[in-house]
Amino acid sequence: MIWNKVETCSRSEMQSIQLGRLQKTVNYVYDKNRVYKKRLDEVGVKPSDIKSLDDIRRLPFTVKDDLRDNYPFDLFSAAQEDIVEYHATSGTTGKPIVVGYTRNDIETWSEVMARALTGSGIGKNDVLQNIYGYGLFTGGLGAHYGGIRIGASVIPISGGNTQKQIMLMQDFGTTALTVTPSFLMHIHEVGVEMGIDFKKLNLRTAVLGAEFWTESMREKIQEGFGLKACDIYGLSEIIGPGVACECHEARNGLHVNEDYFYPEIIDPATGEVLPIGAEGELVFTNIANEGQPLLRYRTRDITSLNPEPCICGRTLIRMNKLTGRTDDLLIIRGVNFFPSQIESIILKHKGVTPNYLVVVDRHGTLDEVEVRIEVTDQYAFKPIGEAFVESTHLTVSDELATRDINKKLIRDIKDVIGITVKVALVPPGTIPRSEGKAKRFIDNRPK
Ligand SMILES: [Zn+2]
Prior knowledge:
By secondary structure, the protein is α/β, with parallel strands linked by helices.
């Protein structure tokens, strides 16, 4: 099912919507926001100069630091009295990034999330357990608004409370989940320990996002829960979740709601726009927001766009699954790689789990990488006579070592990323779990 017929419109119809909205937005921010007015004056662009979609290239980029520098409200174009909701990102250092929504922006958000959930195969007959965190984080309320819009029965449980999550899945007959993939894996682990067979529950669909995950993780989740998993993409700066989502028919790239969020792919080093299909940094311009429309916002996410027609009937352009983030890119001895590349390698091996952490250290002048990987329960050694022990008291059995699994992992990782790393197998439960986005690397090198 398709939520809105605009998702199937022709390229020329879409471009005409985009151009009209882009012109309106540039006019609006020039008129309402003094930071953008100054920026546009500096590069000598007047709103009337935007005559075609390609003219978007004349507009300056907006970066994350612009939002920090203008904390909290200086990039807002709407007046405070028109803002009906605030959200903010969890800034690990310094001030968070703030976004403000007008009533129309909440409408937009509900609309794009309704499209995303419908595209994932969720409808009014579904019981949607929304495990994204509610609060300043956009995940919870975004999925909530979309769920209400399509008429699903929403359970606003938010993150955490693993055992209660499982209880409600059983008792409320949950059919659909919105959750981060790492937390869903955690729920699986806890459930299995409790003796739950998730495949016997009513679960049918999971919409997963807010962090990286790979195709192998998808297989693992689908297998463990007996459901179909779709990828959703979004970021608070642009609206929150709902910027793009996979359709359940193809699950090959995420349809971008490009009548609201105009996508470009640029070379992250030069800022030059790359041809369709090339991989680079994803940039979005809000062409219909009112609260804080951003011009050419650099997401730091690395992907490419796919204009091919999709079997689902949508004509919305697709963005391929993210391959990395420019800020997660690790450069080790001159080699570039993303920690997420390691995940699919780990998942090919039996006896280890996708709970991993990449730790980078500098010894003298040499950078060294250690990949810590948790083994599965069957390879955890428990002290004799203890029915239940804390994971910190577990050790890893020697059996994996005799199967040379370390050597195999080291070889496979070298094949893919080109450098030799150390592999440390650790007992189950020793790598910290997150109830939000999983932290996959620690860089201990001096800055
Ligand atoms: Zn599709």
